Amino acid sequence: MIAPLPTIYSLSYAELQAWCAEREIRKFRAEQIFRWVYQRRARSFAEMTDIPESLREQLSQEFVFFQSEIESHQIASDRTEKLLLKYRDGEFVECVLMREPKRNTICISTQVGCAMGCVFCASGLAGLTRNLTTAEIVEQIARMVHLQDDDEQLTNVVVMGIGEPLANLPNLLPALDRLHEPIGWNMGTRRVTVSTVGLPEKIRQLANAGKRYSLAVSLHAPNDQLRNEIVPVNKNIGIKSILDAADDFFDITGRRVTFEYVLLAGKNDSIAHARELAQLLRGRQALVNLIPMNAISQLSIHGSTQETAREFVHILEQSGITATIRKRKGADIDAACGQLRLPHVHQQELHTLEKTN
């Protein structure tokens, strides 16, 4: 059986230069190709009209552009766009483009499924299948870039899609490096935010990577007893360990840490919870980002009201904690992380069950 061709996004600039050198292709061609792929948003090698036809043919014989297929493409009334991508092994991931007047932000995934088990999230309902490769992560970014109009530019990347990003650092960090190539997407590290459920040693590893990324810790509770219920992996970690690692991240990078807090009705949204959270974070250079929960039909838990969210913010601010409420994007499509993928996963499980019976 013939192995499928790799994607052109599997090559970094240095690797593309090496590919050219091995074939005795003149060095400047690597830069031309790289610019076409990243800056000029080429979708095929045939578009690279200032590159010799023989080289374009050679590229097409050794690489494809995309190794994924677009299974679903949803567009919300606010122009938020969400893709469900299907990879060669039949697995699915999601990525999102969110537009605002002066910024275009994309949200990308790092794993197929998730092992963290957060009670409000659709991503982990079917468990963890595998890590995404570097090329699969880069390809998501490229897909989002190609959704933009010619006069639009990508300004921000949040690694907050399906999966636990820090559990896949060996593949994630090289993918993020691709963002910063001067002859590529040329994005500064400060425009990239990496989210985590709170893996202390991985937080320190990210801090020591030499890049000034922003860190967002998915906290969701002000004490271990409650967090153990909302984020089950906390039983093996503990809030203190997470805060210690977040403090180290700030000391190493100088970047303020954001603490994400999904407000769940009757669960973690009381005045007492707000005061306890304020006490927990007092004295830290921190931002609390309160997140309205997207409704998920498979879950019985619900998000808090806007009035509750505003009161929560007020209590935090009175205590000297900077807090915001995340603006909801794509509310009229399957905007919740993992929500678009889940029906396809269940369909796969049904087919597998039918085959075994």
Automatic annotation (TrEMBL):
Extra information: Reaction proceeds by a ping-pong mechanism involving intermediate methylation of a conserved cysteine residue.
Cell compartment(s), UniProt: Cytoplasm
Chain's role: Specifically methylates position 2 of adenine 2503 in 23S rRNA and position 2 of adenine 37 in tRNAs.
Domain of life: Bacteria
Enzyme nomenclature, EC number: 2.1.1.192
Record: residues binding S-adenosyl-L-methionine: 163-164, 195, 218-220, 294
Name of the featured protein: Probable dual-specificity RNA methyltransferase RlmN
UniProt main location, coarse: cytoplasm
A single Gene Ontology CC term: cytoplasm
Gene Ontology MF, one: 4 iron, 4 sulfur cluster binding
Residues annotated as the enzyme's active site: 94 (proton acceptor), 337 (s-methylcysteine intermediate)
Bound cofactor: record note: Binds 1 [4Fe-4S] cluster. The cluster is coordinated with 3 cysteines and an exchangeable S-adenosyl-L-methionine.
UniProt domain Radical SAM core: residue ranges: 100-332
Reactions catalysed according to its record: adenosine(37) in tRNA + 2 reduced [2Fe-2S]-[ferredoxin] + 2 S-adenosyl-L-methionine = 2-methyladenosine(37) in tRNA + 5'-deoxyadenosine + L-methionine + 2 oxidized [2Fe-2S]-[ferredoxin] + S-adenosyl-L-homocysteine; adenosine(2503) in 23S rRNA + 2 reduced [2Fe-2S]-[ferredoxin] + 2 S-adenosyl-L-methionine = 2-methyladenosine(2503) in 23S rRNA + 5'-deoxyadenosine + L-methionine + 2 oxidized [2Fe-2S]-[ferredoxin] + S-adenosyl-L-homocysteine
Pfam families: Radical_SAM (PF04055), RlmN_N (PF21016)
Annotated SUPFAM superfamilies: Radical SAM enzymes
Protein family membership: Belongs to the radical SAM superfamily. RlmN family.
